[in-house]
Input
Amino acid sequence: MLLPNWFLLQAPPNLNIDVKAWKNLAWNRVQLLEKLPNNPSQVIRDYFPSYDEALNQIYEDYRLGAYLLRLVAATNSRLESWLIEVEGDLFERLYYDRTETIDEKVIIFRQVFGEENVLKYEEFKLRMDEEKNEYLAELYQQYHTSRSRKKRDFLLCVHFSKVPWMVSKRKGYLRKGWVVSNEASFRGVLKKAFEKKLEEEIIKSQDLLGIREDIDNAVQDLEQDLSKHVQIRSQYSGGELEGQDLFLHPEIFPPCMLRIYFEFEKTGRLVHVQRLQMGFFLKRLGMSVNEQLHFWYDKSVDNVGQTFSEFQRTSGYQIRHLYGLEGGKKDYNVPQCSTIATGYFCPFVHLAPAVLIEFLKENYYTTKKKLKILNSHLNSLISVSSSNPTQACSQYFRLVYNRSLYRKIVHPLQWTRFAIKIEGLSSPQEPENKPKEE
Amino acid sequence: MNMSKRRIAIRDYYATEFDVDTLTQVIDFSSFSTREFGFVSLNGKFFRNIAFETPDDLQDFLIDRCPTDAYIGAVYDNPPSRKRPIHTLEWIGHELVFDIDINDYDAVRKYVCDCTGAGQVCLRCWQLINVSISLIDETLRRDFGMNDIIWLFSGRRGVHGWVRDSNTFDLDRDQRQSIIDYLSIIKGEDETARVQERKQLKYEFRKRTESTIFRYYLKNIRRKDLVELGLSGNVATNTIRQLKHQDGYVDDNLARSFNLSLARVNKYDEILRRWAPRIDHKVTIDLRRLLRMPTSIHGKTGKVARILDFEDFFDFNPEDEPSIFSDIEEQR
Ligand SMILES: [Zn+2]
Output
């Protein structure tokens, strides 16, 4: 079984190509990546026809184009984060639309998680010599009888160390170090792992730079053109926020950030991605690096006995990283809602309904009247929460502030920006607040 | 006890009883020379960033300096030293470790025994620790596929679990945290701790947790505990009589009928809450943590942080562990 031809992480076998033609291939890739969000299935149909041997040349061209973009990304950190995000989206879509067989899916899993970290269910069964019956009965019952069978779903096993999020949440069954679950439940972590792998590939591709002048020139040219280009079309970053010390007002935090904030207040610690999510957010609320260092130092329980300067040395790296002062030197934005839903924390997606209801009722609500209105809408809210979290979130905003929104909330900072206006926290330089639209 | 007597007791222990080779049961000697060690000296000063070329050098150091406490840390790319402290070195790995301390049970052990405060621990509340060992050990083996797990008395009022499987050595913080999350059946701390919802616990894990907890619980139960839970005097007396009759052995029938009685007074989850493992997660996720050196002396108690055998999981009594200091006291 071969790797599906659209999976292009390996470097091209040879680079004997006219530099101008090569740049064109890279621009074609850019075009494809930019079209994707608007009409994904159309793009996949047009650019990635189903299997046909005759099409191999197309895929080799794609590989060359994608590789040149990686070389460019290796020289520019903003382009790097852009590329990782859009290639991640494309990967997700292609995996969904263009892997037909179980074998193909398993190959992709192995590419992304590492050969030795993925087992087919049959292989797993062979390894479980003892205790076999005991283990497998429950699994079998769970996945081979009801819903999942119909949807061409199947069981897959990934080593627990590769999918810590699933271990934490007890997704799937953990047996002898393997997380056994239906393939669909791995998709979120598969995309994340792909993005991580792509980042590694970008770093690796640096080795090729500084060897051939023609390649270096091509990369340099493209870097210049592309950074202008991507600047205009870069993803929606949530816009700018105006206001003083906004981070002192949790009441303007969107539900995701508020929940994380409370969790941190209560327990003094957060899992890595939530720490990142909160860190990006506080940064965009105007917290300085130093304020953030103190924020995490004061509240964290993991630094007992550590002095502030020790803390700065150890955990400070991560925080400075958020500000683009370390490591890849990227100036990170708060991720948008769709990214948060798959890779970070969104209460509408990640909280159990009962817990979510409790959370929604407890917060933001100061008056009985508002609470009454909320209660009457809770069911409809909960019913769309996991399938359409942004709709649920927008609906919730309307209930909290009794305001209609002219657009759906697709980014956490949108919530905050609207809330700032309503709560009258904008900075004094701003023109007079518009009258409330009751 | 004055300093020189302590010094002599410690020196005698490390010179005659301590065998540095027993450390191979816990750490891998192949990376010995780049492993961090830490010590508390006789006058109470704490030192870390120390490395030894060979295990014998370590033993010589222990005999020569007589530290009251000795600790083992992570392995680095180069030997840690005062000139090259650990944060300037590349971290290579650290055994996966678990720390269970009776102090983390203070909110619930009042239901089990009369111990109070930091100093006290008895055979009865130690059962709370035993349940945790038993559950964590079994879950690591069966669910996580780990095979090489050692449990140590921490020398005072807790235990340390060391997982030596080589594929756990380089697990990062998030990976270690995920194991803690998986093992935790209660959320929150102290009195506000709550048992997680049933459906969040996989069937087999839940079954294992419940049966282990109830096995230990019933073995140690007193009539007054049952009455405290709200069971009628009759049911309480009968349960105790049956247990006596079966010599403390809890068979399925007894467990079932007892669980029914508990369910009737709505106390099933309460028992799980009280007896659920409480792991100090900070120790597990701190990759550079120093942990008491196996078979070293605990400076406050004079007891040896010894490796526990399987039988110890049932009748280990920290009170019965000999102290090298009391030996000296008696002799003189
Ligand atoms: Zn006690």
In short: The interface with chain B takes residues 131, 135, 138, 160-161, 164-165, 167-170, 173-178, 269, 271-272, 301-302, 304, 313-314, 352, 354 of chain A (CB under 8 Å). Chain A has four domains: 19-99+191-233, 113-189, 246-322, 346-437.
